[in-house]
Amino acid sequence: MKKSLVLFSIVALLTSCGKSEGSLAGNVFWKYNNFIGNKPDSGSKVHLYPLTNKSSPFKEVADVRGDFRFDKVTVGDYLLIVVSENTNASGEDIYGELKDNSKYLKKVFDYNVPEIKLSGDIVKNYAIITKTINDTTLIRLGFLTHKFRIKPVSIQKDKTTNEVIDFGHTFM
């Protein structure tokens, strides 16, 4: 009896000491036009960066339905970055997304979003934004060529967090 109680206690202790994990699943899409409607953004690059430590990010590519999934993600706070392969961004799109998420970009990439004044000129704005992004990580992620979304997410133990990323109309 004592041996089985000790064995049960050891097994219970070992299983309770395991990593707390959860999952993240989502879908990415964009609007083709009002007649055709939404299209899955297959091929979108999906990155999940930890906010609390500098461990390696998770990377995935959206499938033909625009779906993505990360399993066995340690519980905690993350920065979800999705870069569309099917849409284009204006300078205003790029700067707005950077500015809205500046505190997360500082925390993950040590990137300070500069204060700039945008004008009504699309070409000029794009040139200004291009000059302000001199971080090779952000360039490699595609922040100058495609629409992207940056969003903080929390992973909870034994739960799946669901995220839907809508890139809206593409900029032509």
Please tell me about this protein's structure.
With 172 residues, the chain is α+β, with helices and mostly antiparallel strands. It has one domain: Immunoglobulins (Immunoglobulin-like). 29% of the residues lie in helices and 35% in strands. The chain has 5 helices and 8 strands. Helix 2 packs across helix 4. The chain is flat.
Features:
alpha+beta, Immunoglobulin-like, four-stranded antiparallel sheet, 5 helices, 29% helix, Carboxypeptidase regulatory-like domain-containing protein
In CATH, the homologous superfamily goes by the name Immunoglobulins
Tell me, briefly, the overall form: flat
- According to CATH, what is the topology? Immunoglobulin-like
Element order, helices and strands? HEEEEEEHHHHEE
Largest beta-sheet details: 4 strands, mixed
On the 0 to 100 scale, the average pLDDT is 83
CATH architecture: Sandwich
C-alpha termini separation = 74 Å
Q: Structurally, how many domains make up the residues?
A: 1
Please report the first level of CATH classification, the CATH class: Mainly Beta
Number of strands: 8
Radius of gyration from CA coordinates: 20 Å
Please count the helical segments: 5
Structural class by helix and strand composition: alpha+beta
Q: Extract low-pLDDT stretches.
A: 5-16
Quick structural gist:
Helix content is 29%, strand content 35%. With 172 residues, the protein is of the alpha+beta class.
